[in-house]
Amino acid sequence: MRQAGTQRSGIYEISKVLTAPARLEITLANVVNVLSSFLQIRHGAIVVLDAEGQPEIAATGDIPTSSQSAARGVIPKAVIDHIATTGMPFIIKDVSKSELFQAEPQPPWSSGTVPISFIGVPVKADNKILGTISIDRVRNDAAPFPADEDVRFLTMVANLVSRTIRLHRFLNLEGRRPIGEQERPEKPIIAQRGAPDRHPPAKIGGIVGDSPALQQVVETVSVVARTNSTVLLRGESGTGKEFFAQAIHELSPRRNKPFVKLNCAALPEGVLESELFGHEKGAFTGAIAQRAGRFELANGGTLLLDEIGEISPAFQAKLLRVLQEGELERVGGTKTLAVDVRLICATNKNLEMAVANAEFRADLYYRISVVPIVLPPLRERPGDIPRLAKALLDRFNKENQRELTFSSSAIEVMSQCYFPGNVRELENCVRRTATLARSSSIVSSDFACKNSQCLSSLLWKRTDGSPGGITVDRHARSNVMPTSSPRSDGSIGASDEVSSVKACDPNGSGCPAMESRLTQRDRLIEAMEKAGWVQAKAARILGLTPRQVGYALRQHRVEVKKL
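C-alpha cells predicted for Nif-specific regulatory protein (563 residues):
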C-alpha cells in the first residue's frame, strides 16, 4: 500500500511538471529530478528521438542537451536502439555483464566493481516510439530487485511524457509555441520535420498486402533496418524470410555493400565451415587455391544465414566465436581476419525447444535473437490472397506473354484455401492453374482442388485434430524462454517427433482441406463466435480491418448477436 501511495504521489508531481509552461528539454529534466525523489536511483534519463530514430534531446537531472553527441553519452546508443526496436521494457541486473553497455569507451554508467542495474522503458504514442525513459541504481544483492514495480511506474510516466512530446511537436508544426514561450525568441527545439508519427512504414517493393499482421512486420523491418542489430526472421516455410532479409539490407545504411546469403541446411558441417570462413590453399583435398568465405565476402554489408537452426552443436561453437569477436581464421590458416558484418538469421525451427533439449546453444540463441521478427502465415492474412494471386498472375503473364485474368469464382476458391505452404504454395497453385487454363479467364473449375487433383492435401497431416505444418511456437511470439517442460501443455513444436501421423482424405469432413474451404460467410461467423461477436477481435483473427469486417457482415447479411 505504501508503494502504491508513493507512486500516486510521484505521478501527481510529474503531471504538474509536464503541464507547466517551459521548453520541452527543461520540462523533461524536471521530470527526471522528480523521479530521483520517488525512486532510489543513481542516474535517470529521458531521451527523445527524432523522425530518423536518432537521439534529439537527452534530459538528465543536470543540464538538458539537444545535440546528438551529448544525447548518446547519456546511455549507449545500442541500448536506445534495442528499446526503440523492441518497444518493450529492458532490464539489466548488472550492466558490466551486458555487451550493449560495453560498446562505448569510458561509459559514464560504469562504477568500478560496484554492480549497477538498469531499467529502461519506451515512450510510445499510438504504437510509435518517441523516445526512452531509463534509470540505473547500485544493485543490492541483500534486497529484492523491484523490477516489476519500477517498470510499472516508469511506464505510467512514459505515457504522460509521450503526450507532452506530441503536444510540443503539434504546436511546433502549427507554427505556434506552448504558453509561456510565445515571447521567447529561441528556436524551437524540435524541427518541423519531427512529425508525430516517428517511424512511418517504409515502402518495400514487392510486398503485396495491407493486412494488419503484414503491415506490423513492414513497420518493424523499416525501423530495424536503420540499425546494425542482429535480426532473427522466424516463420513457416514459404512466408518470405529471404525476401524480408533482402528488404532489411536495402533499407539499411549498408545498402551499397554486398548482400550475401547461405543456406546452412544445404551443406554438411565440413563444407559449411569452408563456405563461411573460407580456406587456405592445401587446407584439405581439393583446396587448390585460397578462397574467401561468406563472412569476408559480406564485409561491410549483410550476411543472411538461412536455416540457422539446422547447424550442428560443434559448428555452433565456431560460429559463436566469430559473432562475439568479429574475427575469424580461414580453414587451414593462422592469420586472424577482422570482419564487419550485419547478421540476419532465418529459421522455421522452434529454437526455444531446441535450447531446452540441448540441441541449440543458449548463448548462440541470445546472440542471434536480438530482434526477432515473426512473419505471419498466409492463413492469418486471408484478405491479402486476392491481391497476391493477381500479382503472381501478372508475373506469369509477363514471363509467358499471356493475358490471363481471374474470374470472381476463381478468387473465391483461392480465398477459401488453407495454403499450408503459404505464399510459395499460392504461387505454385497460380502457375499450375494458369498453365492449364483453357481460356483467357481462369474460373473455379480450372483449379486442381475442384477436380480432386490437389496433391498438396496429402501434406495436410494432423495428430491431435489440428492442421499440420511447421509453425512458430508461442514462445517465439512472446519472445520468452521456456522455464518448464516444453511439452507440459501438449503442444507440438517444430522439432517434435510426430508419431502415427496419417495423411487426411481430401474428401473427408475432418481434413483441413475441407475445413479451410468453408464459405466466406461461414468463416466470418466462425471468427465472430470466437471473438465473442466483437468486430475488432474478429478482424484480428481474420487479418482484416474492423471496417472490412463490418462491410462483410452487411454483405452476407449476418445478424450481430448482442451478448
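The mean pLDDT is 77.
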